[in-house]
TrEMBL record:
The protein's name in its UniProt record: Riboflavin biosynthesis protein RibD
Residue stretches making up the CMP/dCMP-type deaminase domain: 230-344
Keywords: NADP, Oxidoreductase
EC number: 3.5.4.26
Transmembrane segment boundaries: none
EC main group: hydrolase
Pathway recorded for this protein: Cofactor biosynthesis; riboflavin biosynthesis; 5-amino-6-(D-ribitylamino)uracil from GTP: step 2/4
Substrates-to-products reaction catalysed: 5-amino-6-(5-phospho-D-ribitylamino)uracil + NADP(+) = 5-amino-6-(5-phospho-D-ribosylamino)uracil + NADPH + H(+); 2,5-diamino-6-hydroxy-4-(5-phosphoribosylamino)-pyrimidine + H2O + H(+) = 5-amino-6-(5-phospho-D-ribosylamino)uracil + NH4(+)
Family, as annotated: In the C-terminal section; belongs to the HTP reductase family. In the N-terminal section; belongs to the cytidine and deoxycytidylate deaminase family.
Length: 376
């Protein structure tokens, strides 16, 4: 049994025009004193508090539970006085002279594997340095924190880190404080950067509370995490690996697909243009290998790197229809079809309308897309 990932609470303060700082070197105080007290209480309730390297550089924060009564409460509960303090970096370029490293108890820095060696040498005993694979992977960060016993994680910014966790669908709750003024500066950091967020007009968050903290409005949102399991991610990564086997094409996507029964048995896998058939799609190739009357199909999941097609020039039956005909009721995909060969792919809509559960895994979208980088 792997340890559970922590509950992730993202807390930030922004101006009414959506900025979390201005572009001056000094840190901008957006929160009211009452709101800063909320932040202190949230830190006290958390097992770990996390920021990005940009915030470390610009704010030089200590990131501590400040109220002595809260420190004492933690101690009385048998917890360390201060939560684990966490920094994320892509480059590994973290300055050991920052205040962050010289306060509180335990500290961890996460970085892509390639950056860990130099960073560990730089930080020495100031922090543990942990690699997250080829890239800065927020899922790997949560896995590692879970294994350290972290059950509640507070993500405290800045904008790039908010974007990293939100676009990966890894946030459970947002506490967003809105300060009653404008920053009015196009160069000032925004709450989030542009990105593909699972929460859009069609997938709205739940407003769980609003309150006034001094002159600051606190909005509390519950963010439904896409119910993907670690096994789903692993199997979808297998589908991405399968997509790398596709014979190259300048006119069609390279896609990989796996069909896996409820008990984890792989029923079939397939990839685009498999076996010399220039027209076959990955889902079609995989489904063709399973007898139509296999009783495991209704409980099975289709993992595919690209949204199943809803219209198709090459063959009469699009893949979304093939999936419906197979009886499969659950589809996990990495990447929605871009409007390159088909103006508006309706594969997800078609499946959902027929009652199939469709889950997207934005964490793997970049990898699925990379296999098709030559298509632009
Ligand atoms: N009002 C508020 O509530 C808060 C405001 N802030 C403000 O936010 C600003 C800082 O925000 P921002 O500049 O976005 O910095 P962040 O704190 O979000 O850190 C960004 C850094 O984290 C690493 N990183 C983040 N995402 C990735 C990724 N996908 N791949 C690789 N590395 C990644 C990089 O580190 P590296 O550069 O080492 O490669 C990147 O430069 C400051 O002005 C600060 O005052 C911050 C927190 C709260
Ligand atoms: N400016 C700002 C925040 N900034 C956050 O507070 C951190 C600094 O905390 P400390 O080390 O305790 O001073 C900083 O790194 C950033 O994450 N937070 C908020 O709730 N409201 C605000 O207006």
């Amino acid at each position: 049994m792997t340890d559970p990932r922590p509950y992730v609470l993202l807390s930030a303060a922004m101006s009414v025009d959506g900025r979390i700082d201005d572009s001056s070197p000094e840190r901008l105080l957006l929160s009211s004193p009452e709101d800063f007290d909320r932040v202190d209480e949230l830190r006290a309730q958390s097992d770990a508090v996390l920021i990005g390297a940009g915030t470390l550089r610009s704010d030089d924060p200590r990131l501590l539970v400040n109220a002595p009564a809260r420190q004492a409460r933690r101690k009385a509960e048998g917890r360390p006085e201060q939560p684990l303090r966490v920094v994320l970096t892509g480059s590994g370029d973290l300055d050991p002279a920052r205040r962050f490293w010289h306060h509180g108890d335990a500290r961890v820095a996460y970085a892509p594997d390639a950056a860990t060696g130099a960073l560990a040498a730089r930080l020495g005993a100031l922090a543990e340095v942990v690699g997250t694979g080829a890239r800065l992977d927020p899922g790997a960060v949560l896995d590692d924190l879970g294994a350290r016993g972290v059950r509640r994680l507070m993500v405290e910014g800045g904008g790039a880190v908010h974007t990293l966790f939100l676009t990966a669908g890894l946030v459970d709750e947002i506490q967003l404080a809105v300060a009653p003024f404008f920053v009015g500066d196009a160069d000032a950091p925004a709450f989030v950067r542009p990105g593909l967020f699972p929460q859009d007009a069609a997938h709205r968050m739940t407003l769980a509370g609003t309150s006034a903290l001094g002159d600051t409005a606190l909005l509390r949102y519950l963010v439904a995490r896409p119910p993907l399991t670690p096994a789903d991610r692993r199997l979808l990564a297998e589908a991405v690996a399968e997509s790398r086997l596709c014979p190259p094409s300048d006119t069609a996507y390279s896609v990989g697909a796996l069909v896996v029964a409820e008990d984890g048995t792989e029923l079939a896998r397939g990839h685009s243009r498999e076996g010399g058939d220039p027209k076959v799609h990955a889902e079609e190739a995989a489904l063709a290998k399973i007898p139509a009357d296999d009783p495991r199909l209704p409980g099975a999941t289709l993992y595919t790197t690209l949204e199943p097609c809803s219209v198709r020039a090459s063959r009469p039956t699009p893949c979304a229809q093939l999936v419906l005909a197979s009886g499969i009721r659950r589809v996990v995909l990495a990447w929605r079809e871009p409007a390159l060969f088909v103006a508006d792919c309706q594969g997800v809509e078609l499946l959902e309308q027929a009652g199939v559960t469709v889950l997207e895994c934005p964490e793997l979208a970049a990898e699925a897309r990379a296999v098709n980088a030559h298509l632009g």
